[in-house]
Amino acid sequence: MIRATLSDMLFTGEQNLSHYPNYRSILQEDWYPDLESHIILAACTEYQYAKAKAVKSDDGMVTGYVGIFTDSLVRALRSGNWRKETTYVDLLHCLDTSPFQTPVVAGNRKGAHIWYQG
Prior knowledge:
With 118 residues, this protein is α+β, with helices and mostly antiparallel strands. The protein has helices at residues 6-17, 68-78, 88-93, and strands at 40-42, 52-56, 62-67, 104-106.
């Protein structure tokens, strides 16, 4: 498995985003996310590491790996246990818990409904 460093990820993001109008470089020391218009769902707090688990075939062979947070998030979204009033905060309460990885939601609109209702 190829491991990417934080620098690799930031430089890739910079290359992919820099052509957008009003782009503010993510490489600037004073960069911060726009919490007014965006919701951030993160796999863990800043002092934890996001974990992965092995994916096994029916015969028990490891066929790959999946992020624990991503797997839990996708299962929760596919479950169909939703109301139109479900918020991003509610979503976090539906995810698997672990003492080693605590999912986080941030943003001024984290109490907003997940499903847009125009």
